[in-house]
Amino acid sequence: MAAQPSLCNSPPPMESQGKKGADPRPPSNYTDLISTLPLEEGWAPMRNRKYQGFWIPQRALTGTLDMQQNFKARPDDLWVLSYPKSGTTWLKALAYAIMTRAQYPFHHHPLLRQNPHECVPMVDRTYSRGQAPEIEAMPSPRILNTHLPCSLLPHSIKSLDCKVIYVCRDPKDVLVSLWYFNNGLRPQSMEPIPFTKAFEMFCEGNCPYGPIWEHVLEYWEESQRRPEKVLFLKYEEMLEEPLRIVKRLAEFMGCPFSPEEEKEGVVEEVIELCSFDKLTSLEVNKTGKVLLPSIPLTNDSFFRKGGAGDWRNHMSSEMARKLDRITEQKLEGSGLTLGGVAVKASAAINGDDQALF
Ligand code: PAP
C-alpha cells in the first residue's frame, strides 16, 4: 500500500510559517495535500478522506491539519473526546456543568441558553472555519473537543499530558444514530442511504472517523496506561449510573463535589440540567442553528432518542450478530467489552507498546 503523507509525525514546513506579518494559517495551504488522500463518498453529502488510517470528513481536514501544526495546548486543558454519536453532546454538557458549577446558578446557567457544542467547541471545526483565535482566546481552564483518534491529536496535547475524557458506545447504536444524523444532512433531492448500505460501510470501517474499533482501542489502551490522565467512559454506564459517573467525572477533573454539595443535591442538579429531557425541552436546542457554515444543521440534530438498544428496531438479528462478531474480533485481548459483547479479558495491553501519548 502506498505510504500516506504524514503531517503528524514529521510536519512539513508550511509556506506561511515563520513569515512575519503573514496570516499564519490560511486553510487553503492544505488543499493540495488533501486532494491526494483516498476519497469515499458513500456517506454523501459527507465526503471522507483516508488520513493516517482513518476516514476523516473532508470538511474537517483543513482544520485537522492546521490544528496538528499550530494548536498550542495548555497543561490545564481538558479534552472531551469520542467517536461521533457516542454521547459527546451529553458529556460536553456534564463536563461544562461540573466545571462551571460555582460560577453560575443552575437556574441561570449558560447551558439553558446555549447548545453544549457552543459551550465546548470542536477545535478542528473551529480551525477549519479559520477561527483558531477563538480557541486561543478562551480563558483557562478550557474544555475542548474533537472526534479525532488519539494518534492524530496534535503533539502539544500529548507532550503537555493534558487530561482526556473519552466516551464510547455500543457500535450498533452508534451506527443507527449516525445513519439518522447523516440522512438529516442530505438535501431533499437525495434519497436516504439504505440502512443495509450504511451497515456494510460501517462494518468495513468506511464511515466518518472510522474504523470505530481502532478509534476506541487507541483511547482504551491509553486509559489503561495512564488512568490518571485518560478517563474512559461508556454511554451505557452513564445511562445506568449517572450519579456515580458524574462524581467520578468531577474527581477526575480535579473539582470533586464536597460533602456539603452532595448533601445539597448539587450532583443531582448537574444530572438534571444535562439530562436528555431537560436539554431537549430548551428553546435553543429546539430551534437553534449549529455553527457550521455550509451544513444545514440545527441543534436538534444532536438529540434523537437518547437511550440504548435502538439498534433492535433497525437491524436483523443476523446483522447484529455480524457487527458484534467484528467488534469481538477487533477488541479481542484488549480487556474491553462493547455493546454487551463479552470479549475475553486477558492481560492484553502490551506494556512494551509505544504509547500514543
Ligand atoms: P455528535 O458526535 O454529533 O456530537 P453525540 O452527542 O456523540 O453526537 O451523539 C448523539 C447521540 O447522543 C444521540 O443518540 P441517538 O441518535 O441514539 O438518540 C442523542 O440522542 C444522544 N444524546 C444527546 N444528548 C443526550 C443526553 N443529554 N443524554 C443522553 N443521550 C443524549
UniProtKB/TrEMBL annotation:
Membrane spanning residue stretches: none
* Keyword annotations from UniProtKB, A to Z: Transferase
Its top-level enzyme class, in one word, is transferase
All copies of domain Sulfotransferase, residue ranges: 75-335
Q: Can you say what this protein is called?
A: Sulfotransferase
Cite the residue spans of the region called Disordered: 1-29
Q: What is its EC number?
A: 2.8.2.-
Q: Any signal peptide, and if so, which residues? A: none
Q: Which InterPro entries has this protein been placed in?
A: P-loop_NTPase, Sulfotransferase_dom
The record's GO molecular-function terms, alphabetically, read: sulfotransferase activity
In the record, the note on similarity to other proteins reads:
Belongs to the sulfotransferase 1 family.
Which species? Phoenix dactylifera
This protein's source sits in the domain of life called Eukaryota
Family matches, as Pfam families: Sulfotransfer_1 (PF00685)
